[in-house]
Amino acid sequence: MDLFNIPLPAILSQLVVGLINGSFYALLSLGLAIIFGLLNIINFAHGAQYMLGAFAAWFGLQYLGINYWVALLVAPLAVGAFGMLLERTMLSRLYREDHLYGLLLTFGLALIIEGLFVQGFGVSGNPYATPEALRGPVNLGFMMLPKYRLWVIVVSVVVCIACWLVIERTKLGAYLRAGTENPRLLQAFGVNVPLMITLTYGFGVALAALAGVLAAPIFQVSPKMGSDLIIVVFAVVVIGGMGSILGSIVTGLGLGVIEGATKVVWPEASNTVIFVIMAIVLLVRPAGLFGKEK
Amino acid sequence: MTSAFQPDFEQLHVEDLHAFYGESHILHGIDLRVNRGELVTLLGRNGAGKTTTLRAILGLTGRRTGRISLNGRDIIGWPTHRIAHLGVGYCPEERGIFASLSVEENLLLPPAVRSGGMGVEEIYAMFPNLAERRRSQGTRLSGGEQQMLAMARILRTGANLLLLDEITEGLAPVIVQKLGEVLTALKAKGYTVILVEQNFRFAAPLADRHYVIEHGRVVDEIARAALPGKMDALHTRLGV
Question: What Pfam families is this protein classified in (chain A) (predicted)?
C-alpha cells in the first residue's frame, strides 16, 4: 500500500522518528504546564534547564564516573535543586507583578546560563556515549529502530502518564489543582503554599533536566541545544492550552508525529508545520485545544 | 459555655487592627473579643470592612498593623497557613469551591488543623445532598449545595473557630433555614463562630453578641439581651 507513491514503511518510520521528537516535546511542555499552572510564570529558562540536565549527565560521566543510569536520577535532582534556589531567591519576588516580569527574568536567566556555557564549553557540542545496555537496533517489522530511541519513547510516555495520574487522582494532585485555581484560599486552609510553589517549580525544572539526560546520547550535548528546541515546545504549549496537563502531553506527542508525517509528504514544510497549526488553533480556539478560557 | 470550672476563655482578641489593600487603608482600628463557644456577628453596610476583618485575621489582606491574639498567641506576623493550624476554618463570601476538584475532593482538601474534626460520614449525614453528588464536579452543584460544601469542608478539619462570610447570600429560604439549623448544632457542640451577615433576621436569633462596623471601625457592640432596645438605632446604622 502506498500513499502519495511513498512506501508505507517509509511513512511508518518517519512517524516513529516524529514520536521521538514528540517525546521531548511532551516532557518539556508538561513541565512548563505544571509551572505555569501554579506559578503563573512562563518559564523561559526551561530550554536552558534542559541543557543543564544534559550537561550534568555529560559532566558526571566525563569527570566523576557517574554512569547514565545514575545520571538519569541525579541530574534532574541537581538541576531541580538549582531551580528551587532560583525560585526562592528571584522568582518568588515577582508573584505580585505582571506575568511579563517572570517571563523577562527567566528569559534573562536562560541567556546568562547559555552564555556561560558557551564561554566554558564552546558551541560545537560534546558526544555522550549511549549506555551499553541500550546499544544496537530493535526490529519493529517495518524498520530497524535504535534501542535507545525506543527507550526514550517509553520513558517519556511512562513519566507523562505517571505525572497525569498523580495530578488527577491523588491528594497531592488535588492540592496542585486547588493551588492552581486559588492559592490564597488553599493557604487559608492551612497548606504551606509557598513551599508547594518552590517544590513544584523544582519538579518542573527536574522534568526538563530529565529530558536533557534522555537527549544527551541522541543529540550533541551543547549549550544551544535548549534554545533550538524550546521555541517549538512553546508552540506546543500554546496549541495544547497554557497550563493544561493533559493538553501538553497529548499535543506534545501528537505534534511530533504530525511533524514526522509532514517530513514524508512535504519535507520542506516539516519545520514550519507546528507553527502553522499554532496559528490555526489560535484563530479557532484562542485558549488552545485543551485550555479553558480564563 | 461559662461555668465555675471553665471560665470564659478568650479565644480571639483583636486590638486596633489596621489593614490595607495596596495603598487603600480599609480597616481603621478594629477591636473585638470573642470567647470560646460564642457566636458573634459582624454587621454593617456594604464596604464597611466586615469581610476585610475576617481576611485580616487570616493574613489575607495586604499590610496590617495592630494586635491579633488567637488562643493567647500574637499572630499578626504569621503566614496564613500557620494561622489556620491554630484551629481556624474559613468560609469565604464567594464560597471558593474548586472547579477542578470533585465534591468529595473539595470536602477532603483542607488538611486537619486540630484533632476532633467531624468524620466524613457524620458530615454526609448532616448534608445528605453532598453524599449523593460526591462524584460531581464541585462547581456543578447548586448555589445552596456549594454553600453546604464550603461549610462542610471546614468542619472536617477540627477547626474550632469558624470565620463565615455571608453564608446566606442569594440562597433560597429553605436553605437559609437549614444553615440556621447547622449553626445551632455547631453552637451546641461548642464551636466559636464569627459570622459576617447582611441578613439580620437570620443572625439575630443565633448570635450572642453583635459588632456593628462602619468605615473600618467597630462603632457599637450589642449583647443579645440589649438587642430589643437598640433595634431602631441598628436599623438606622444598617440602612435597612
Answer: BPD_transp_2 (PF02653)
